[in-house]
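ARCHIVE CARD
Drawer: 12
Card no.: 0347
Subject: one protein chain, sequence and derived structure
Cross-reference: see card 0346
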Amino acid sequence: MTYKNHTFRFSSFLFNLLSVVFCLFLVACTNNLKDTETVEAFIEQMVTKHQFDKAELDNLFNTVQLKPEILKRIASPSEALPWYKYRKIFLTVARIDAGVKFWQENASALAEAEQKYGVPPEIIIAIIGVETQFGKSTGNHRVIDALSTLAFGYPPRSQFFLGELENFLLLCREEGINPADPLGSYAGAMGMPQFMPSSFRNFAVDFDNDNHRDIWHNNKDVIASIGNYFTHHHWQAGEIIAVPLTAKDKNYQSALNNDLKPNLRLSELESLNLIILRQIPLDRKVKLLSFEHVQGEELWAALDNFYVITRYNHSPLYAMAVYQLSLSILNKKGAFP
């Protein structure tokens, strides 16, 4: 880890800390969310732009609560952990065994989804495993509360969450869901795959043709929705995801940065005195990534499919956890008849 990255982490932490202090003050001073001008403006926008009923939205937002615990959570995500701590959360025997069981119970839908979307079962399964432990941890916040807290009480990302709140109300209308009912994460992510509302509207799939896109309880819809998401983000069927590297010296450190898109040719890796431990096509670009251990670091060359996984969650730690969990599930499944 370079000094520049340490400085970036500290600055981001300080910014988030100050933002949360301000937002907690705001929440403490707001007795009724509905009384704030920003909420009124949002309601008026939904009425004018999407022809929502104003009285219904007024009643809905009269029930909404701003949640201080959500503001605390968003300031300290798991992705801020070092890799050696982060991986222990997800690379567990229990999660691997649950992944094998999920595969066995949903083999037909997984095979059908792979045929249609080109995404292998172990990747889809690993996403569900990392996100919600196969549906065990889908979140206990009302989505309307989570999105409203972040839209109206967290200025650093208010525009993003205002957009998600808008999409949430639209999807509830489209799917015939009472917007007061769905539960999700502290950030408003929903169901077994933890789709944000915009992702639901763009990528959720009714895979069993029952006229509902159910990512909470319908495994077929969940599996296909993840496959569809990956396809739309340019997943390449059968392509390598990531390859480990070894370093002869520290020359590679100059190539480390916060961007995630593959940008280096194999010849450039060699010029940095890096040795790739698995053959990959010469025309592929890779991204050099470093993962922190208690002593030293782990180096990887990540290819385009790894980048696609980071479109699900913009963190190399997340993508590596998904990739390594997928391999562990695949290997464990091979031990079963």
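Annotation on reverse: Residues 3-29 form the longest helix (27 residues). The two ends are 44 Å apart (CA to CA).
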